[in-house]
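Q: How would the structure tokens look for this protein?
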Amino acid sequence: MVEYLIFLTISSSILALFGLGLNLQWGFTGLINFGHVAFMTLGAYTTVLLSLKGVPLLLSALIGAVIAALLGLAIGFSTLRLREDYLAIVTIGVGELIRLVVNNQDLPVGNEWRSGAFGVQSYPIPLATLVPNIFTKLLLIGVLTFLAGVTLWQLWRWIRVSQVSNIANSSKKVGSKQEFISRLIIGVLLALLTVAIYISGVIALYNYNPTGGLMLLSLVALAFVFWRLEILVRSPWGRVLKAIREDEEVPKALGKNVFWYKIQALMLGGAIAGVAGAFIAWQLSAIYPNNFEPIETFNAWIIVILGGSGNNLGTILGAVLYFIYYEGTRNLDKIIPLDSDRLGALRIMIIGLLLMVLMIWRPQGILGKKEELTLGK
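A: Here is the predicted structure in token form.
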């Protein structure tokens, strides 16, 4: 049970990172990116190929993020001066192009060249060879405790803000009360999940398991990216991105270089997806081109839409809910007698149906704010 919960945590963290990159591009800036998996592919392959050449893992991951950001720069310069639909077409084409190139090109794996179709295996993974003493174990547990404490504190503040808003907006009691109740339920569930992850993490780190170390590293990366993104989107820079999303003619009239802001959002979102690619490579221990098919991009879109575009906490919630659904329906064949292909199609149909219901009931997503989005246009 502990190992399975750690697996769920790592997978959800990677999906959340991947979704946060897309949320910055689409949720905050309005850039339609249907090839988001291309950034993840570059991040994953750059990280593992450099690490096989002896480059330190952290530096390899950072270089992978930079390469993914440069891809965003190239895509942006070639498409952002054109209509929005050109960006959507180019990104989905680039995503498939990179996957096919990796699949058909020989890659420098260690001291030899190997066909990309065979994938890359046996590369270094963070903390896999660590043999911690008691002091190191306590240090790792201390970092996890700090993350859990900050998470619970932020969840309490998030619920508290809703409660204060509920009291202040006495003229809109019904809507305010519903929002407070929704936040309370979501906050309590996330707090319980945080406690469960913390307990599992402590067990895995004390009786040291490499997956426990990878879980801690993925949570640290997710927490850092979430923290910095929250600061950025609340800054003047983030407010310009929101203005571009709503009507880019307004920031243009105020003298803002809209093209450069779009480039920055595309590059930063791509870099975050590149980091997610490094973690997916470390989790899988072996990567193949088929790990980066277009469906991964649309999984990210599901996560962003489900949680609420333009809301970073909503993206994390969407990642958690999506992966719980994905894992919860894995053994659906025990209930419904279907082969693997039809079962996969059924799972996609169910998530599509749930999204349709969500769009009717709450088109802004679970935590999205309808008044911030141009949903009526």
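Residues 2-131+208-372 form a domain with the ABC transporter involved in vitamin B12 uptake, BtuC fold (CATH 1.10.3470).

The two ends are 47 Å apart (CA to CA).

Upvote if useful.
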